[in-house]
Fold:
Amino acid sequence: MKKINSILTTITLTVLLAACADNKKATTTEPSLKEIFKDDFDIGTALSADQIEEKDSIADEVIRRNFNSLTPENIMKSMHIQPEWGTYDFTPADKLVEYSQKHGMSVVGHTLIWHSQLPQFARNITSKDSLAEFFTNHINTVASRYDRKIQGWDVVNEALNEDGTMRESIFYKLLGEGYVTEAFRLTQEAAPNTELYYNDYNNEQPSKRAGCIELIKKIQDAGVRIDGVGIQGHWHVGRIPLKEIEESILEYSALGLKVMITELDVEVLPRNFQGADVNQRMTMKDDPAFNPYVDGLPDSVQQQLADDYAALFELFLKHKDKITRVTFWGVNDGQSWLNGWPVPGRTNHPLLFDREFKPKPAFYKVIEAKKN
Ligand code: 9MR
Structure:
């Protein structure tokens, strides 16, 4: 009996190993996104803490093969990098820099000043002086540490409302609207060799775009450096605002800025609003109608997703002289923040690689967009 068991185990292992080898072959013969677009723009991805630690070898292979720009999805946000007043945890960010250097990739720091994911102590601040102290120390300490080690910073993230007015964040309320320019001025001093970006979602939409342009002009008029603007690119299948995106690329570029698509994903699940405000939620929790693709995407949606990605990349290629980077917000569908927002526990499919890290039809359509 023991012998039979051992023979069975050997057979099973052999079959498994053969399957793995096949799988590996399939991925290593795929085209590489960063190679395909190497003369056009950088291709980036957001990395989770585990991916920075290289915990999953398949993820690691897909990352190294396809991307040349890395954005930390969370670990450089202030709640992680300065969890207590004056106490910094640089370990994961240092690891990311080391990883990027080892593989000849660049890093975009995300993000210095954002109203969300603030450390608890900062959320409790009520005086202007204390907030100004946190603001200045945080930028000086974090930005100077990574100067010459990273390519750029999302200096300020999501400072605007949908109508283009300033978001009433803790920074706006206590420091006044000049805080954005001040953040860029401090970062420019602390990190003179690092590019400085303003990053937001929906800033391709006309009203928010107008507010964004006004904000950028204020920074420029103050004689402070700003190098680029990030259009995050959290869009929805079948509803990609191509016209607004193109207008935005042209208008931002006319300000002398590099244009970047910084957090690209195309959501496929039902939603009743646009954008990426992490505080916004939908309430229809348990209705299966709001989680329709638990077992995979039907062909029609898969095709629409592929067509949408193709249209986006055709547009990006048309303006490749103005666009320096296209970053996806995650490596594969399983990692995407959209599985948990705005309704927790859904199965979303917004990226080019599926949960098994296999390229989806959208991946091949993106590659084809280059050939056309
Ligand atoms: O993808 C990030 C997710 O893991 C975090 O829980 C979330 C918390 O705020 O932030 C997500 O990333 C956001 C990014 O930093 C800024 N733009 C919107 C992104 C999606 O919420």
Strands lie at 42-47, 69-72, 106-113, 152-157, 195-200, 228-231, 234-236, 258-267, 323-328.
